[in-house]
Amino acid sequence: MSGTGWRVQVHTVKRIGIFGGSFDPVHAGHLLVAAAAREEAKLDRLIFMPARQSPFKSGQPLASDGLRLRMLRLALAGCEWASVSDLELRREGVSYTVDTLRILRRDLPDARWFFLIGEDHLARLPEWREADALGRLVEFLIIPRPGSPGDEPPAGFQWHWLTGWPLGVSSSQIRQRVREGRPVDHLVPPPVAEVIRYNRLYLA
Ligand code: ATP
């Protein structure tokens, strides 16, 4: 689902999670975390929100916006509680979470909003654009990540730790494996592996 379509489908939803990231490509770690967040935070819906340009990553994602969207849609096909939004992809420039949340909350003011954040991003949360406002707009669901220091969340934010299921996989690892000609089976869903192969992604 994309564009404004999600509004129609979530009009009765009360607890909504946003999972932002580059998803270049989406992988098994993302999907396990999504399932854990849905269960542990009792989310009615989880919206995957691929960023056009992350404020904390230098350079553009390697795969095009369209292919990152396609991989996400294929990975989530048949999953009725998850959807994919192209809201940030349609906005020019850097994708700031606070802007996205303001738009979403305007459309669904009565929902309770959660934002998934990897433990690895926690320390820099106060540097996020309009961090004070952000802290009032959303509750953070912290994703445990193997190898992360287990920092306490910074003050001024509402947060809940998730427990399931830390998996030491990253998109950079997947891209590196593809570049080296190594298999990525089971690290990404089969249709995603197919998109990577067919479009010759991440070879250079
Ligand atoms: P890259 O390796 O390119 O930096 P990434 O694997 O971290 O990418 P992103 O799409 O940038 O993936 O991440 C989106 C969100 O998912 C971030 O909050 C990140 O911390 C989280 N995340 C990514 N991989 C995992 C994983 N294996 N387990 C838990 N959380 C993850």
Structure description:
- The structure is a single chain.
- A six-stranded parallel beta sheet has the order 3-2-1-4-5-6, sandwiched between helices.
- The protein has seven helices and six strands, in the order H-E-H-E-H-E-H-E-H-E-E-H-H.
- The protein has one domain: HUPs (Rossmann fold, 3-Layer(aba) Sandwich).
- The mean pLDDT is 91.
- Helices cover 32% and strands 16% of the residues.
- The protein has helices spanning 5-9, 28-40, 65-75, 97-107, 131-137, 171-179, 190-198; strands spanning 15-21, 45-50, 82-84, 112-118, 139-143, 158-161.
- Helix 3 packs antiparallel against helix 7 (190-198).
- It starts with a helix and ends in a 6-residue tail after the last helix.
- It is an alpha/beta fold and 204 residues long.
- The longest helix is centred in the first third of the chain and has 13 residues, at 28-40.
- The chain is globular and about 45 Å long.
- Adenosine-5'-triphosphate binds at residues 21-24, 29-30, 33, 117-118, 120-121, 143, 145, 166-167, 169-172.
- Adenosine-5'-triphosphate is lined by residues 21-24, 29-30, 33, 117-118, 120-121, 143, 145, 166-167, 169-172.
Number of helical segments?
Answer: 7
Class derived from helix and strand content: alpha/beta
Bound molecules: adenosine-5'-triphosphate
* The CATH homology group name: HUPs
Apparent shape: globular
Per the CATH scheme, the topology name is Rossmann fold
How are helices and strands ordered from N to C?
Answer: HEHEHEHEHEEHH
Oligomeric state: single chain
Low-confidence stretches: none
Q: What keywords describe this structure?
A:
Rossmann fold; alpha/beta; 6 strands; globular; binds adenosine-5'-triphosphate; six-stranded parallel sheet; 204 residues
